[in-house]
Amino acid sequence: MNKFAIGTLFLGVAVLSACGNGGNSDSDVAGGEQELANELYFFNWGHNIDEQILADFEEEFGVEVIYDTYASNEEMLTQINSGAISYDIIIPTDYFIDRMIQMDLLAELNMENIPNFENIAEEFQDLEFDPENRYSVPYLYGSTGLAYNTEVFEEPPTSWEVLWDPEYAGKVTAHDTSRDFVSLALQRLGKSINDLDDASLEEAQGILGDLNANVLKYTTQPAAELISGQSVASLAYSDQAGIAMAENDAIAYVLPEEDGGMLWMDNFAIPSNANSQYTAEVFINFMLDAEVSKMLTDYIPSSNPNAAARELMSEEELSNQASYPDIPESSEYYVDPTQDETRAINRIWNEVRAQ
Amino acid sequence: MKPIRNAYALLSPAIVWLTLFLVVPVALITVISFSTDGGYGLIIYEFSLDAYIQAFDPFYLQIIWQSVVWAFVSTVICLVVGYPFAYFIAHSGKWKNILLILVMIPFWSNLLIRLYAWVILLNNEGVINQFLLSIGLISEPITMLYTPFSIVVGMVYGFLPFMILPIYASIEQLDRRYLEAAEDLGAGPVSTFLRVTLPITMPGVIAGVFMTFIPAVSVFVITDLLTGNRLVMIGNVIRDAFVVEMNWQLGSALSILLMALVLLSVLIFTRFTSSRSKKATR
């Protein structure tokens, strides 16, 4: 038996997943041509659309939609960079729009083709990460707040402090994403989540050890622990909280009033190397139609930035605290960190847990 | 010569396979690890040692060391459980094939799914705790999930078949006449095992140890699911370097470092054990 062969084969398998390439293909934008393409390449987050909507679009416009999904912004960026497939529509998150604009990867939108943009509620237009919406249009939004058990907390907690409380040791969860982890500490210290200078990060790291000692597990899907009661308070995306609330009446969701919590927005954008920018703009306009947009949030537990769609919703839907919570003044969207800041944040996340 | 030409013809699929799936990826990783960071996963093909300067950080070395320790513990447990297991299967006559299939059945489904089953088993409200509570053996649930204990459970469970199968193969091939000869020469069962069976089946043990240790040292899915990310393993650090930091250079350099370490331990281990087993059979 050849021991080396077996050993080395495993090495081979282990490194396979890391292989890829970082090339870039030239964009080939058809100039001013206002004709629908035969196909639309749509790259979206997994579980982020009712696919019936795509079928409706295909039927109405005779354009075939080729639909692919990704699990993270970074994964999407890697695909776009590789140029293997030229997508017409992508759905980056807020801070990622900023990054992709900086990297020259997004096409400027021709708003004449997207008249339904006016359906977007004013508070969601012209946001920091893309002033004047030159490159992006809101798709869905949500928040990152505190899902808690009302049998334990009679009043909604007003601060992340409950996650630090030794009384609930082993009964709280936080996200396994380094940025959210560090943001908890920053907000608890009364700082902005975008205040990432060395001194602030150091101060944040100083109090994260105690949080780490309290945490049962790190996950972005705490619904199961909340429902079973193993977690009495969890950092949670609003849609995860929504899932937990639907299963267990004792669960509630709040953006902590003192600290604020985080907001996020997924947006339509068109890569600069798209096959057909016009088709993509027609598609965005279709998606912003009140009826279509309502169909989207009937299916997805995220919140709808489309004012016209909201008018079609019932009082009950609009009073759902997971989808439409009260937003404290100190709530913020993420601004894209520099690469050094990203590394510093990730370093803190590793160091605190490895202690 | 014709036979030699035939041999190459027969080897060619393996050579192509090895080149495509071993040589090319490792070469790519090596190249990236020495390339210049263009930011957000972009690779500038200019020589740079920057990634290695980042990788040779006491913090990462400490995490690598920790991962080696956990992988080692799991491998030892796999060996202690796996050897008798393989021995038993090899001597179970007509049940042999059925037992072998049972060992391999878990491979029919994805490790991820099987790990979720362990979440259900080890949970505070899980099957094991509920059972122990109901028979009154314990009065409070034992916290097993999201502790270092659970990573060992996950790794032993996930990689045990990799230990059993090669050891089984070598025990199965063991020529019974050696055992008869040992008995004739007055060796007792213990002595026969230690001085005949074990040395002859050593290649199987070595293969099993590597096939367990190597995936165990670079594991990250098990850490995610069974320790709830409370433990930091080098596999997770490498994954995050690629997908979160988009620092492909650092991820590649750490991968190369880990591979070098594994290769080194393979070399030391084989030299050590093969010289011993030769001595024993002499």
UniProtKB/TrEMBL annotation, chain A:
The keyword Transport applies. PROSITE patterns: PROKAR_LIPOPROTEIN (PS51257). Keywords: Periplasm, Signal, Transport. Residues 317-337 are annotated as: Disordered. The keyword Transcription regulation does not apply. Its main location: periplasm. It holds the Pfam family SBP_bac_8. It is found in: Periplasm. PANTHER family: SPERMIDINE/PUTRESCINE-BINDING PERIPLASMIC PROTEIN, SPERMIDINE_PUTRESCINE-BINDING PERIPLASMIC PROTEIN. This is Spermidine/putrescine transport system substrate-binding protein. It comes from Geomicrobium sediminis.
From TrEMBL, chain B:
It is a multi-pass membrane protein. Belongs to the binding-protein-dependent transport system permease family. CysTW subfamily. This is Spermidine/putrescine transport system permease protein. SUPFAM superfamilies: MetI-like. InterPro entries: MetI-like, MetI-like_sf. It is found in: Cell membrane. The keyword Cell membrane applies. Residues 64-269 form the ABC transmembrane type-1 domain. Keywords: Cell membrane, Membrane, Transmembrane, Transmembrane helix, Transport.
